[in-house]
Batch of 3 targets.
Target 1
Amino acid sequence: MPTAIVDIAPLTTTEAAVLALLTIEGERSGYDLMKAVTQAIGHIWTPARSGLYAALPRLVHAGLAHSRSVTQSTRPDKQVYRVSREGRRALKDWLESVEPGARDTFFLKLFVGRLTTVDVLLRHIDQFVADTEGRLAGYREIEQTNSNTGDDWYHRHLLELGIERAEYELAWARRVARALRRGPR
């Protein structure tokens, strides 16, 4: 039975990740998707099981995915899902949307980067670099006022961690940008 397309808000990260997984993996059940998360992208994005299962009927209701029952001889029927044409468009829009400060979303978009273009990924990296440079500048300002005595002595340890992480992430992002421009080897 065809599903009516309803106007929905922009995709949540979970909805976008589910659409990306369905695009990459093909038709899957909710259980299969949870397995794919654990085996593939769990270190980048891990939804609550209930969040993933709740996203599936929302995507179907919005016309972004289709579902069907699969009859199994030894077990109860299960639902499997696949991306619709509208779901592919919504995923493309989500992938192309550059969001300042959306660090975890950036990592997820890079992880499923094969679904978009190098130019789009480079725009995301540019935003990530700008966000990270801003964070590093804030840490450097705090560093100037940190006396490294009393409570500041304790704070200093975490401040140094923040600075080192930001510096590492900037170097990493620049390496990734160079690699994207060069292409896979």
Target 2
Amino acid sequence: MAALTLLSIVLNSGAADINAGKAAAQTKCAECHAATDWEGEDAASLESLIRDIVAGKVKHKGKIDLTSAEISNVAAYWGTGGKIKGSK
């Protein structure tokens, strides 16, 4: 079962939209978090953490509602440390 979960995360991360992740992070997460907070973390580990937070498995300041796609996108964006290629 863990292998299927890992495979799902890897496949979803590959399809993530970094620009959409930036928009979602700015809308839903920026009050407390900046992309640079996660510098050095990879998208897969961030996605797993965010999924656990949304599911209520990890303590968080407040309840956060993100779709599966938003989780993948935010993780991909934060995994870049806020550095999007071609962006200033």
Target 3
Amino acid sequence: MTPTVGDDMSNQLPTVRSTVAWTKLPDGAVLFSPETEVYYAMNAVASVIWELLRQNDDSVDALCAAVHARFPDATPEQIRSDVMELLADLERSGLVESLAGSATA
């Protein structure tokens, strides 16, 4: 089985697809993939995660730590759960590419 974003074996972040267009809004963001014609609306927290993901090629742990720094009232466990859920959804939507799937882009 190939590791994906949601696997505990992988702490590497997926890659944002370079073709994805995005617009920041006052209460979130909207993403669009011209390849798949997918529109994806994000709330403010997901928008922060998207921005960090675009800027950061570190690890899931580093991304979660950066999110926690922005939202210190949330527990680290809840942040990690939410980040992993969002990353998996972005991957399913074709907006990011896992390292395992990079050969199939």
